Amino acid sequence: QSTILNSAKANKGLTPGSSKKVIVVTDSEELVIKVKDPNLTCGWLLSEANRLSNSSKHICALKSSSGLETIDHWLNLYDKKLSPILDCEKLVAYYSDSCKYEATLEDFKPIKMIGEGGFSVVTQVMKTDSGELFAVKSMDKSFLIRQDKLNQALTERKVMSKLSHPFIVKLHWAFQSPSKLHLVMDFCPGGELFYHLHNLGRLTERQAKFYFAEILLALEYLHSHSIIYRDLKPENVLLDLDGHIKITDFGLSKEGIAYNVLTKTFCGSPEYMSPEMLEGSGHGRMVDLYSLGAILFELITGFPPFYESNRSKMYFRIKQEELKLPSYLSKRCRNLLLSLLDKNPNKRLGASFGFQEVKLHPWCRKVDWEKVSSKKAVPPFRPNMRKSNFDPEYFKKDVSEVFSSKGEEPYIDDWEVVEEASTKASSAEMSPVLCLRSLESKSPRKPPPLLSFEETKAASPRT
């Protein structure tokens, strides 16, 4: 199976007294480093490469010669053992640029595209002064305004800047150039849960329970901060290097949603929308409980509940039809799904005491929540270290234009100018374009024009 890591092959025969060789290619020589102890770490290897190098420059990172993102990320984690590195494997040395007090977009070197959404592109990048890998989500301003998506981008940045949780992608920096907005986030080399589920077909209940538990804790954290997520789906659940989940994409999130508070914005992905969302009668925290049930259903069956290729038929089924469950599911699992996917949000599991009700359900009885929370539970799969965990179709696309600065003058974190323009536009019922132009002229930093009206094609919808 494509997602299983078997690092034992790399260490086969490497016992105390034996060794393997790692070849580090620098700008002037090849260093042959002997690894005599299976407990030696990536930090030791980097230190040894610097010790043996004749160059006056400092090696800040080692990368695989093939550009394999899982190996590259592993090598950045200094406490990780060298087990995935093969005997006589060639690694490339990267030298540190001078460190700046404040980072700018120019400090990140694009490597490859790893994701694409309706109005964004996600690129794997390397920070040139440290060799660290990050993911950058880039959005075209003119497209955001034309498609009325600017508030989603601002919401995502605002919400992510407040979050800190092991199962939620961390935002490190936010930049903008005159034509684009950029979010620099954790790089998750395991890729999307959707990609692996597509390859595997479906999971066993035991496997699905692991992901269900970690997703639940992430949603519980959001609700504890009065934030509803509203966009839970396998595409938005990423896997880190060890196989633990991280939720991403907070553009549809809503702040200030306390218990029993409702909002009426119609949003979300069709397959995972709750009946109350489709009815437009107002929705609250229970939409996330419904989507938690929907993603569990998909993990163990391979399809979202009520799925139809025809969207109108699917909406009708979500609102009107009874849930049909496969006979191979356990009685407890069937009961949990029926409870989470109840069409009445007031009767849905979690309506009275939130996620605590779900934790106490018989299907979750053997879950050690403290162990899950501390990431000590063993993932059913770990990202393949010798094969990319991203859709190879993304790699065919050129990322140079995403970070192109032709005719532009990137500057540090001026998202506030865009946010102020959006707020002003909403209150004055005027065009965000006009607001942005008026604010540009008032900005003491005098940034270059904030908008570019170059044509941008929307990404293809999910099929």
Automatic annotation (TrEMBL):
Protein name stated in the entry: Protein kinase domain-containing protein
Keywords from the UniProt entry: ATP-binding, Kinase, Nucleotide-binding, Phosphoprotein, Serine/threonine-protein kinase, Transferase
Pfam family, one: Pkinase
Tree of life domain: Eukaryota
Chain segments carrying region Disordered: 439-463
Keyword Amino-acid biosynthesis set for record: no
Domain Protein kinase: 108-364
Lineage of the species this protein comes from: Eukaryota, Sar, Alveolata, Ciliophora, Postciliodesmatophora
Coiled coil: none
GO molecular function, one term: ATP binding
